[in-house]
Amino acid sequence: MMKTIYFDNAATSWPKPEESYAAMDQFSRVIGGSPGRSGHRLSIESGRIIMDTREALARLFGIDDPFQLVFTKNATEALNLAIAGLLAPGDHVITSSMEHNSVMRPLRALESKGVELSVIDCSPQGALDPKNLLPMIRTATKAVIITHASNVTGTIMPIQEVGHFAREHGLIFCVDAAQTAGALPIDVSKMNIDLLAFSGHKALFGPQGTGGLYIRKGIEEKINPLIVGGTGSRSEHESQPDFMPDRYESGTLNTLGLAGLGAGVKYILERGVDNIRLRELMLTQRFLEGLQSIGGVRIYGLGDASHRISVVSFNVDHMTPSELSFSLDEQFGVMSRPGLHCAPSAHRTIGTFAQGTVRVSFGYFNSEEEINYVLDAVHQLSRQGKE
Prior knowledge:
The protein is α/β, with parallel strands linked by helices. It has 2 domains: about 5-15 and about 270-385, Aspartate Aminotransferase, domain 1 (Alpha-Beta Complex), CATH 3.90.1150.10; about 20-270, Aspartate Aminotransferase, domain 2. The protein is built from 10 helices and 13 strands. Helix 2 (about 40-60) packs parallel to helix 6, helix 3 (about 75-85) runs parallel beside helix 4 (about 100-110) and helix 7 packs parallel to helix 10 (about 370-385).
């Protein structure tokens, strides 16, 4: 039977810790109530699960008040809430050329309605120089919105320096942590992060359909809700509650998913983000070194694994990304992702638009043996491509 090597963790981490599966099974079979909508014990227990997940995430991100965390169905919804809720015609915003479409598309949509947008050009390796921020500032500049790490090259952005710059100039700083939450240390206070959007189903080991947005205390006054409706609170009023997190959490939450997310975050807290980072760093460095020894392979991004997350994009001469990814799957059972990775601006920056690259992304549960197996597979395919 063919091996199954899952190297697509930047899209969705898999497998999850057993604790995540168990928490969702426990909720489905034993609890199942709707949080905040009733007074019976199963409803109360559902509410406790959601609160436990808020508190675990607050510990992970250095957040003082767990109620400053708003749950969404993914990082995309969180970024839409932050961007659409914050910006208005006449405002100016700064972003980078390495952004995912979850940042770029909301910004381009608002640009067509009168929001001014400046895009900082990053290096061909996907790196951002904080010195390039100052010339971009205008009188109307309201925010800086950038990714913590590229989903294409894995390049880690200088978040702490950008956060310091934003705070120094009175700008709101929004970070897309879809790829880094759970994989890199994040402290919203030390990094001067005002808005942190994160995905639950990647390095946080939660299921799909989970994510959230941290909103620094006081900033919520500047951000309009994306959705309004029932919250289970202040039901006697037909106007939306103005307090956190109810202001932004209309409708029944995905309690099943948040149970799994909470278990995943606790798993990370028990093992330590630094330890998880060290393991993924080792796997990434091993893969980069192996690729460099294979003829006809082009690697994108920074060569030093310490400056990237566990994401590697590459191409093989004589093969399109789609052909290479398909062959990895069909011949070797290796799961990768070809194409533009929902980040056309990033691919223009590194010179791979419109063909794209093959992306492999490792997780905590991958092994050195799997790295060696995939390197051998790439080596064999690179030779096939020349025949």
